[in-house]
Design goal:
By secondary structure, the protein is an alpha+beta fold. It is built from five helices and nine strands, in the order αββαββααββαβββ.
């Protein structure tokens, strides 16, 4: 009798001990898992589609809790890099705007890229704010001034380039690189690989007004797409930074524009002429459209 009772007590203690170990195991294992899940889903706006504070038992998708998208670029300065989750790429058109030249822009360009003249008035120009991908493939704000007659074409061109994630290193008004005169400022802009449009200036080494002077031309990624013209002795008529690296267009280096490039194809679709098709000189950065 005593033996049976002893055995029953031993079994009871054994099962009690096993249950205790099982409970400890559950607490330790599940605690680690829950902590890991908690950490995994705390970032907002990441590609996993979860929002801050969610866990495996309680989370919401981006569709249910949409991030606070930018409504426009009105207060965003050119050159600002934007987080992907702040840009509503499904409604990207709202980030591509055409406006008349306001007082702030007027004061910024007056006496620099724009001077009083008989050829073009400020009322004939438009200011564009747009998005583009930079060379790090980040979304960046950009700006241009073009002629009002091609402003809508330009807006559509850059919206299509953005949709194709085409990379443009930077896009500031030429005035950011102002040196004191329009031709040297253009060179300074080019040497910073800046994409630009309006600049009341002549064609280098001539007295002839450039198409840029009326806002009918745009230069894209000018370092990789130089203006090339030779003197009779074979030297460059005008030299730009590192341009010898990009005169051989068969290299197909990154950001070099060719007939196969989507940049050329989109501009051509909208009626622009490419300087890379010229005969006496080659201006691989240059697209122009004349509507007159």
């Amino acid at each position: 009798m005593k033996r049976r009772r002893k055995r029953r007590n031993q079994r009871a203690w054994f099962f009690t001990g096993m249950m205790f170990l099982f409970l400890v195991w559950i607490i330790l294992f599940c605690g680690e898992d829950m902590e890991g899940n908690s950490e995994r889903y705390t970032e907002t706006g990441q590609d996993d589609g979860l929002v801050k504070g969610s866990t495996t038992k309680d989370y919401a998708s981006k569709e249910d809790n949409k991030p606070a998208y930018l409504e426009n670029l009105d207060d965003i300065e050119a050159g600002t890099v934007l987080a992907d989750f702040k840009v509503d790429t499904r409604q990207a058109a709202k980030y591509f705007t055409v406006n008349e030249i306001d007082d702030d822009i007027r004061q910024y360009i007056d006496g620099r890229s724009y001077v009083e003249n008989d050829d073009i008035q400020l009322e004939e120009l438009r200011y564009l704010k747009i998005l583009h991908y930079n060379y790090d493939h980040e979304i960046q704000a950009g700006e241009l001034i073009v002629n009002a007659k091609i402003a809508e074409d330009c807006r559509e061109v850059f919206q299509e380039l953005f949709a194709r994630e085409y990379e443009i290193e930077s896009m500031y008004l030429i005035d950011k690189y102002w040196t004191g005169n329009s031709v040297d400022s253009d060179t300074a802009s080019i040497e910073h690989n800046n994409t630009s449009a309006f600049n009341y200036r002549v064609v280098p080494n001539t007295k002839r007004l450039s198409k840029h002077a009326a806002g009918f031309a745009i230069d894209i990624n000018p370092l990789q797409n130089p203006y090339v013209k030779y003197n009779s002795d074979g030297s460059f008529a005008k030299y730009y930074k590192d341009m010898e690296k990009y005169t051989d267009r068969d290299q197909k280096k990154e950001h070099m524009i060719s007939h196969d490039d989507i940049c050329f194809q989109i501009f051509k679709k909208h009626g622009f002429v490419w300087g890379g098709d010229w005969n006496s000189s080659k201006d691989y950065q240059h697209f122009e459209k004349i509507t007159e």
